[in-house]
Amino acid sequence: MESNIMASVWFIAGTNNSSKAGLWGGTVSSLELKLNITQDMDGHVYTCQSTNEMLQRSINVAVNLPVLYEPRFQTPAETVVHGVAGEPLTVALVATGNPSSIAYTWTKNGQTIASTGSSGEPRIVSEGPILNITKLERTDAGVYTCEAVNSQGSAMINITLQVKCK
Where's the Ig-like domain (predicted)? Predict the structure, then answer.
């Protein structure tokens, strides 16, 4: 009677990814898990469980899989934004990435837009992925670019602002 008959199973995000039968009966006692990694797999938990039915014992090890990837902007509802001269305007974007520490830079015609906390009270300021214009002017119309950067890379998105008269 063998006492080291083991059955091993991988669980991926709670779903059983069973082991295969061994060559001479029983099941394979060691498993290798190969994955084609995508950013959607970030944070998934992979659990390897081995059971020895003869000893009525099992052991499992769970591993959280962090997947590093460059920022990606969630597609905004509109990439063309309409505003009215004299009114305030806010453009809020969302970018995700891992690591989640993302630095944002807003530009218009190659000129960097001041961030919140800059000296003075600029009329157009950026705060991370948010662009704030306190009082729109017709000359504010144009293409604004937001760049998101983390240690894995960068992403850019263009927002076209059209300003209408009151």
Answer: 71-162
Under a CB-based contact definition with an 8 Å cutoff, are residues 113 and 107 in contact?
A: yes
> pLDDT tens digits, residue range 147-158?
999 999 999 999
Pair 117, 127: CB distance under 8 Å: no
User: CB of 126 within 8 A of CB of 115?
Assistant: yes
The domain segmentation of the chain, as residue ranges, is 15-65, 69-164
Name the class of domain 69-164: mainly beta
pTM over 0.85: no
Burial class (CB in 10 A: 0-12, 13-18, 19+), 21: exposed
CA distance 28 to 20: 6
Cα–Cα distances in angstroms (integers) from residue 74 to residues 36, 77, 108, 148, in the given order: 23, 9, 21, 12
Please report which helix (H) or strand (E) contains residue 53, including its range.
Answer: none
Task: Assess contact for 66 and 98: CB atoms under 8 A.
Answer: yes
The model's confidence at residue 50, banded by pLDDT at 50, 70 and 90, is: confident
